[in-house]
Amino acid sequence: MDIQELAVNWKIKNQMKNILLASLLLCAVNLNAQHWLPVKNGVNFFPYTLFHDTIANLLYTAGSDPNYNETKSWDGLNFSTIENGVSGEVYSIVRYKDDIYFGGEIRKAYFDDNNISVSSIVRWNGNSWNDVGGGLAKSNIGQWISTMEVFNDELYVGGIFNKAGNVEANSIARWNGNSWQNVGDGLVNTEGMSGMVRCMTKFNNELYVAGSFTKAGNISTKNVAKWDGNSWHSLSNGVDLTINTMIFFNNELYVCGVKDANIMQLMKWNGTIWESVTMNGLDTSNLNVYNFNVYDFEIYENELYIGGKFHVGNDSKNIAKFDGTKWIPVTSLGVYENADFAGTVYCMSVFDSSLYLGGYFKNAEDVEVNNITRYTDKKPKASFSLSDSNLCMGHPWTTMINTSYNAPIDFEWFIPKASPNYSNMVAPIVTFPEPGEYKITFKVSNANGTDSTSQIITIHDSPENPVITIISDSVLISSYAENNQWYWNGKPLAGETNDTLIFNLDVLGYGYIYVEYADSIGCTSESSIIVSTKEIEKSERIKIFPNPFSNNLYIELFANNKITLEIFNLTGNSVLKREMTYSGFIDLTFLPCDIYCLKITGDNLYETKKIIKINK
Fold first, then answer.
1. Helix, strand, coil proportions of the chain in percent (round to 5)?
2. Domain residue limits, the chain
3. Residue pair 459/391 in contact by the 8 Å Cβ criterion
4. How many angstroms separate the CA atoms of 160 and 197, rounded?
5. Do the beta carbons of residue 267 and residue 275 sit within 8 Å?
6. Secondary structure (3-state) at 473
7. C-alpha span between 401 and 428 (Å, rounded)
8. Measured between alpha carbons, how far is 286 from 404 in angstroms, rounded to an integer?
9. Using CB atoms within 10 A as the burial measure, which of 217, 257, 311, 542 is most buried?
């Protein structure tokens, strides 16, 4: 093998390395068809909140550990941990402008070996944790944030506190990115003390706030009010419930809360009056909050869901949906900890066409999960794209990218005449043997049904290889007048896209040159390799030959010097290290043909040289 073949093989090897890495990152999925699915290996905490960041298309979660709490994001395939988490419980997560905010009973946020002290709220800017204007405070007792909402381009936070930064604020405050402001004198109870905000939601350009309070600004109201950006308004004097959660569904405000004697109740506001919401279908034999509690509402596929701690139907637990007249089980067993303990659903969110649930449970129907699960009741919709839109014989492979939605869990690809012609991987790498048209059929399925889609793609022939004409030892010309890219040692030379390459060999050093041509479609072809023959400079104290070599490399020392010789491969790994005090051959038969770096050190000596092994 000569040096041209070696250089070609080196390029091919790196191309195949990229393909191998892509294949390792794309794993096959073979889950049993079912409504409930695990979310990877779950989380080792009890999620109190789930937030779908629609900007980055990530699902954030955190929760229950009062000492150390992981903060995680989920991209649909894998969890990522945000630095080293926070100290304290997290009740709410939201994006405001470019940052992700975490609110709760948070005391510290950790990164690397350091931490910062915070007070109930902290923001993550993608690289580090940051304080939010000094956070929140409350005289005599602890403070926390229960809920956060972005409204009128400001971040509203609600909970238990009477100060935000240096501003007096009763249970609700707003942050504009630089400073805190109060919200119309806030919310107070009958004693004039700060009230408690449990939940907030937006509807028709107004912010609805609920919890436990008797006054919003200067307006008397019971436990619920709305803010229009300038002033507070009551909803027919409110409702006699300490409200845990609320949601707008079919233009009506649904709330769940605690009535007298710790009894749970569901109600709704139709815009004019408050009405009771039926609890038909739910086990109401014991409505004490320790046995029956609703922690979250969510809308999924235009249906209203509740999650919490309760029984519905015969044996289903902790998750139910409303059919307009009664609450019905989502599945026969629901979500639960084990046969003896019901567990709890604390939060829900819609992400990736599925309903995600977080809380304290280890089972979803008959599927083992770990405190987080997802549910889908829709037939999947098949869709795919290609990683490479210009497919040419010079690069005849592509990665099939699954863009299906509605939570498919089984995948099948049918590509006659291609290799492979069938795959059940999520995103297989496919090679096409010759130019022409190929039909790709993609089939997806889950427990609710199957869908498929087809697409015909064209593999284009590559243009003829460019030919390099050597004008002189510093001038080369491509046979194509335009759309060239010149390469040196496998890397593109910046700005060198004309037909003529003028170069300084003393500047470039030892290596090889070739040119790549791209036609109007984007298909490319490469020239044969032109090898630079610049001699390796001789040292007064050391000489190395032959180079390139086949099996043995001779090291000649011109003085009685003790040197250390070390050889590195292209990935930077050391493949040989040896001390020498006299001239002689080094047997390098064990090395594969490739380019290596030789490092020589000794007294007042440090040299590096490129050496090339070829196969004669």
1. 5, 50, 45
2. 3-31+380-459, 36-132, 468-531, 542-612
3. yes
4. 7
5. yes
6. coil
7. 8
8. 44
9. 257
The pair phi, psi for residue 508, each rounded to 5°, is: -70, -40
558-577 pLDDT, tens digit per residue, is: 666 688 889 988 777 889 99
Adjacency order of strands within the sheet including 58-63: 47-53, 58-63, 72-74, 79-81
DSSP letter at 338? -
Virtual CA dihedral for 291, 295, 299, 304, nearest 10 degrees?
30
Which two structure tokens, joined as six digits, stand for 87? 């100290």
> 36-132 belongs to which CATH class?
mainly beta
Residue 434 token pair: 């010759």
Three-state DSSP class for 70?
coil
CA dist 25 and 7 (Å) reads 28
Question: What are the backbone dihedrals phi and psi of residue 271, each rounded to the nearest 5 degrees, phi first?
Answer: 105, -15
Domain 3-31+380-459 part of CATH 2.40.50.100: no
In tens, the pLDDT along 171-216 reads 999 999 999 999 999 999 877 788 999 999 999 999 999 999 999 9
Residue ranges with strand state E in 120-195:
121-124, 129-130, 136-137, 144-151, 154-160, 163-164, 167-168, 172-175, 180-182, 187-188
Answer yes or no: are the C-beta atoms of 256 and 245 closer than 8 Å. yes
Task: Measure the CA–CA gap between 236 and 272, rounded to whole angstroms.
Answer: 7
3-state secondary structure of 116: strand
In the sheet that holds 595-602, the strands lie side by side as 574-580, 563-568, 595-602, 605-612
Lookup: tokens for 575: 């493949």
CATH fold match for the domains 3-31+380-459 and 36-132: no
Sequence-separated (6 or more) residues with CB below 8 Å from residue 342: 309, 311, 317, 318, 336
> Scanning the structure block, which residue is given the tokens 């770096």?
597
pTM score, whole prediction: 0.65
- Domain 542-612 sits in CATH at 2.60.40.3080
Q: Is 84 left (phi over 0), alpha (psi -120 to 50) or beta?
A: alpha
**Which parts of 371-497 fold into alpha helices (H)?**
none
